[in-house]
Specification:
The complex is a heterodimer of chains A (447) and B (250). With 447 residues, chain A is of the alpha/beta class. Helix content of chain A is 22%, strand content 38%. Chain A has a ten-stranded mixed sheet, with helices on one face. A ten-stranded mixed sheet of chain A has the order 3-4-5-7-9-11-13-15-17-19. The termini of chain A are far apart. With 250 residues, chain B is an alpha/beta fold. In chain B, strand 9, helix 7 and strand 10 form a beta-alpha-beta unit. The longest helix of chain B has 15 residues. The two termini of chain B are 33 Å apart. The mean pLDDT of chain B is 95. Classes of the chains: A alpha/beta (447), B alpha/beta (250). The interface between A and B is medium-sized, with 22 and 32 residues. The structure holds adenosine-5'-triphosphate and magnesium ion. Magnesium ion binds next to helix 1 of chain B.
Chain lengths: 447, 250
């Protein structure tokens, strides 16, 4: 048992009753079992294939505080944080650390849609939650998921019943706000019933310059014929560590797109697991990473084709500068019988300095014979000839480098379907490359 | 005025220029001819500051300034423009964005405010017409998927936008069809002012029918071995370089 692991085991042994007492009741069911899984697995080391690019032990070793007693931070996020993607009118929710903000406008509309803390959900929605909780997010296989399940006390629930659609984008802003080093454990569940339709935007912001460790487990259940368009935008700071595990099950005839953008961070590990369980569905994974200084970004994805006639598309682009480290491991697994699978996976990376490191590992495993799959990965440097050409036209070398980096990353930004976000992202990426996003004071999404 | 003195230069450890002397006064057009691999593009690349080329001896001054001490972008701001023999494609960087940045950087250097968007677009339209560049091309990434001739035309379009005082046209005529050659050459002549000087690198007389050189130089094996007037280019067209080589050896 390492020091990192032991401190969480002691923590749980000492505080499990407090955790449970202050938790949404529906989260207590699998808690003890999840803890036992964690205790028997321990935190993964870098010897474990799936975590070979992220030092989990190190990330979890600092002595972070936790807010088990659910003490509200006396700020009104709506006041201190006017975060809006201009021209995008959203249903705006705040999660402050791992507490759903008390004055979120919890939506329970006539159509049966529910958005908000599971504590405030109507009984039927709670039952749905209980039936699905930890089904996709197996606590026996991943230590971070197990630990999150043992410690999480509230969950943000998105429930869209049969044939309903969210008429506006849901925007959830995850604020990290604390005077001392803090660990938060966030939980999200998205349930789209048959024919449901939703666009979701999650934004991460750290407001104070202390160390944060955020774990987040998102379970997504897409029933037949549903459509999900989901965006995650991380804009934290260099002292933040983010571990996000997203588990998605997809029924038949669905269109699902997951877009993950790391604009500013410290250490980030995003895990995405998608299971295509029904025929004629299409899933798209887009990723955009900008890292410099000594930032670390590790995206680890798995798309499983379990049935025939599904399509998956994956595109991740990284710009790695200074001595930052990027990692991408994307596995596509086509199970026996998943005929007529069409899958394309691309990871393209730009290392702007000699010190920048990128580890790229696209993997294609195919156990069916009638499929069309391809994968590719490139790691390039800035094109010296292009830089010189621009300089000859009077563009200073810093500006020329910026234009090339911007050009490189915009090829994934273009894939974003949510137009106001796409425009905003262009603006933010530009600022980011100009070094104007390096301090997160309040909200840099604001003008 | 551009003044090159005893210029020696190498690339990848290989000596290419072996003592070039050349003076180009304001308003003068000099043609530079010579066999393949003689060092013509090397000389142009050195004038604009390409980092792959190393100057081992000699000097270049431009209007009294030590050109070799200036960054490539500073040379551009000072008014030097190279129409590349092989223009570079820059996927993802739009022509508009690229030129707007270039024009405004030059203005910044001159102490002027950035151009207003409408003025910039108007200027683009006017200059584009001058070289009859298809509007579709300006909406693409820089040179991306342009044909050989389109790339050359695009070089002169950029020249029109940036209004340099010293131009190097490195084989701008190659790849252009007969009509395009006339349009581009006439475009160049319209852009030229009393002050504009230029080096025209070419293998053929036909471009020089439009742009009349004051002097013609022959570069062979890293040295300028012969200088003459416009007639020299015609003689070369007829007789090739062998007689000059013979002359140079004797
Ligand atoms: N970047 C480089 N690396 C290695 N060798 C080079 C490089 N650039 C030029 N050279 C070599 O230098 C010599 C001169 O080349 P340069 O391009 O200057 O010739 P040129 O006179 O322009 O010929 P052309 O008429 O064919 O355009 C050639 O032998 C060429 O191979
Ligand atoms: Mg040449």
């Amino acid at each position: 048992m390492t020091h990192s692991e032991q401190q969480y085991i002691d923590l749980y042994n000492n505080y499990s009753e407090v955790i449970k007492a202050h938790s949404a009741a529906v989260l207590n069911g699998p808690r003890d079992a999840a803890f036992r899984h964690f205790a028997s697995m321990g935190l993964p080391t870098m010897k474990k294939e799936e975590y070979k690019y992220t030092d989990v032990q190190k990330a979890f070793s600092p002595d972070y505080g936790l807010n088990f007693k659910r003490i509200e931070i006396p700020t009104d996020p709506f006041e201190v944080f006017r975060c809006n993607v201009p021209n995008l009118s959203t249903l705006l929710y705040f999660v402050v650390n791992d507490l759903c903000y008390k004055d979120n406008p919890h939506l329970k509309d006539d159509n049966g849609i529910f958005l908000g803390s599971i504590k405030q959900a109507p009984e039927e929605v709670k039952q749905t939650f209980c039936g699905l909780y930890t089904r996709n997010a197996d606590t026996a296989t991943d230590a971070v998921t197990a630990l999150n399940t043992a410690l999480a006390q509230d969950a943000f629930m998105v429930y869209v019943p049969r044939n309903r659609q969210l008429n506006k984008t849901l925007q959830v802003i995850n604020l990290l706000h604390s005077k001392t080093d803090l660990m938060v454990n966030r939980r999200v569940m998205v349930v789209l019933e048959e024919g449901a339709d939703a666009t979701l935007l999650f934004c991460d912001h750290a407001m104070d310059s202390v160390r944060f460790l955020a774990t987040q487990v998102t379970e997504i259940y897409c029933s037949d014929n549903s459509r999900l368009d989901m965006y995650e935008l991380e804009e934290n700071h260099i002292l933040c560590t983010r571990f996000s595990n997203t588990y998605v099950s997809v029924g038949s005839d669905c269109t699902v797109s997951l877009n993950n953008i790391t604009l500013y961070n410290g250490t980030t590990r995003n895990t995405i697991r998608v299971r295509l369980e029904g025929e004629h569905s299409e899933v798209t994974l887009n990723g955009c990473v900008i890292a410099d200084k000594n930032q670390k970004v590790d995206n680890n994805t798995l798309i499983e084709h379990l049935v025939p006639h599904c399509t998956s598309n994956e595109l991740y682009r990284y710009v790695i500068d200074d001595s930052a480290v990027g990692a991408f491991a994307g596995r596509i697994l086509v199970h026996p019988g998943a005929q007529k699978t069409v899958s394309q996976e691309t990871n393209a990376n730009l290392c702007a300095t000699k010190e920048a490191r990128m580890y790229s590992q696209p993997m294609l495993e195919i156990y069916a014979d009638d499929v069309k799959c391809s994968h590719g990965s490139t790691v390039g440097v800035l094109d010296e000839n292009a830089l010189f050409y621009m300089q000859q036209r009077g563009i200073p070398s810093d500006e020329a480098r910026m234009l090339l980096k911007f050009a490189f990353i915009s090829q994934v930004c273009e894939k974003i379907k949510l137009e106001p976000l796409r425009e905003r992202l262009n603006y933010l990426v530009n600022k980011r490359f100009r070094g104007q996003l390096s301090k997160c004071t309040g909200c840099s999404l604001c003008k | 005025m551009l003044e090159i003195k005893n210029l020696h230069a190498s690339v990848g450890g290989k000596e290419i220029l072996k003592g070039v002397d050349l003076i180009i006064n304001d308003g003068e057009i000099h043609a530079l001819m010579g066999t393949n691999g003689a060092g013509k593009s090397t000389l142009s690349n050195i004038i604009v500051g390409h980092p792959a080329y190393e100057v081992t001896e000699g000097s270049i001054t431009f209007n009294g300034q030590d050109l070799l001490a200036m960054k490539p972008e500073e040379r551009a701001h000072a008014g030097i423009f190279l129409s590349f023999q092989q223009p570079i494609e820059i996927p993802g960087v739009s022509m508009t964005n690229f030129l707007r940045t270039a024009v405004n950087e030059r203005r910044k250097y001159l102490g002027l405010d950035p151009l207003k968007s409408t003025d910039f677009l108007k200027q683009m339209r006017e200059k584009r017409k001058l070289v009859e560049l298809d509007s579709k091309l300006v909406n693409r990434s820089v040179n991306e998927g342009f044909s050989g001739g389109e790339k050359k035309r695009n070089e002169i379009f950029q020249m029109a936008m940036l209004e340099p005082t010293f131009c190097i046209l490195d084989e701008t005529d190659s790849g252009l069809d007969v009509d395009a050659l006339r349009i581009v050459a006439e475009g160049f002549n319209k852009l030229k002012t009393e002050q504009t000087s230029a080096i025209i690198i070419t293998h053929y007389q036909r471009l020089l029918d439009y742009i009349r050189p004051d002097k013609v130089h022959v570069l062979l094996n890293g040295r300028i071995v012969k200088t003459g007037d416009a007639e020299l280019a015609k003689t070369i067209e007829d007789k090739g370089f062998d007689w000059i080589k013979d002359e140079a050896e004797n």
